[in-house]
Specification:
about 160 residues, mainly alpha, Cytochrome Bc1 Complex, Chain D, domain 2, about 40% helix, about 0% strand
Length: about 160
Amino acid sequence: MGDGFSIYRIGPAAGIAGALALMALIAFRAMPASAQDYPDVYHPASEDHPVSGKQDFMKHCAPCHGTNGRGHGPEVNLIPDIHPPDLTVLSMRNGGVFPAKQVADTIDGRKSIPSHKRFDMPFWGVNFQASDKEFTPKSEALAKARIDALVDYIRTIQRQ
């Protein structure tokens, strides 16, 4: 106490310093030891790639399409005038055949000139590009693999 140092400081500077130290600790703990610690989210799930089409669906599609794919996700109530389709009836509406290419093209969003209505849905073919490597052959292949994984998952939720 007499040395002028105390772990219990009083005053606004101590509060700010403490908050900054806490944020730095959280940021440091959140950083991976190496780039290899990040899961490769572009491939369908496997031992080497733990993120699946279902996981991408739940993160990126379910907010609008719902966790069951029927078009009633929580974002529907927040974003005016969006009407996500029921993804569980795509095969039924296509004579019992799942329209995989059409679904992939719709998810990608870059295959046709979009109507005004298309802007209700993100262009995942752009959003899934590898950061700082956008539109390179490798980035395009990774985005395609991720879209293919989503298509495969959507195929599994089709109603008979």
